[in-house]
Amino acid sequence: MTTLTRGAGRVTRSAPRPRSAPRPALLILAGPFAILFLAVYVVPLVYAMQRSLFQVRSSGLGFGPSEDVFVGFANYASVLADAAFWAAVGRVFLYGVIQIPVMLVLAMLIALLIDSRAVWRPTVFRLTTFLPYAVPGIVATLLWTYLYVPQLSPIVKGLHAIGWQVDLLGQQTVLLSVANIAIWSWTGYNVVIYTAALQAIPQDLVEAARIDGASEAGIAVRIKVPLIRGSVGLTALLSMIGTVQLFNEPYILKTVTTAVSSDWTPMMMALNTTFGANDFERGSAISIVIALIAGVLAVIYQLASTRSERSA
After folding, report:
1. CATH number for the segment(s) 73-311
2. What is the mean pLDDT of residues 59-69?
């Protein structure tokens, strides 16, 4: 114990306790996660980085034995100089510009509607909104493929019946069709996040605004939405990372339309290069570049979000 004396009185202060070693129970609980994290994330990432620095070359006009040759960043230079890669990045960027704002705004409107208790049976409404997210992405894409194929889709047949000749899988529309599938699948997920954040808002603020005569729309715009800005930023960040990794929807639609090629997105290009062209080294380089793009987007958004919070 450390003793301090002040005049006639005496004040005692406990000395800081030394930090104890981690409890075995914590290590046991964290162990499975650490093993899985290393096995499915760190090890493949390190291996991909290692393979991206090599090329497999054969002697004797390709008929001789093959060997790994260290080429440094030659694979990365090849990827960055490939016009097809940047075309794929451009498609994904345009997809994100369309899909992310529409999805997040729609999710916010639904969450505000649920929180306002203006809907009948909000629990049922919330569950109905969340159900599309519970459908696996591949299954959801197959369902929408049925609605897109002109020979099968009742929607397309109905539009044709009224004189509107539209091809939902054409060169000009397939990007919107892919975005529509993602919006349908992921809106409910964001609704759950926004609803949970809205329910954490102190009701005293909302009631005080109502007493002051604020409308429900004014309360939503001026009180509720600013208070859940952190949740909005989180969903925007996750959506941007998911956009860079776009794969399932266009990969399945590729089987029913020629508008989607094997290198339509960077992820599809990485898969086709790795397994289609049997070029694991260049495919690894593409994967690392995709990861770097996602990381840069995350850092830029985080810096912008931090600056916005400081200026607010």
Report:
1. 1.10.3720.10
2. 73
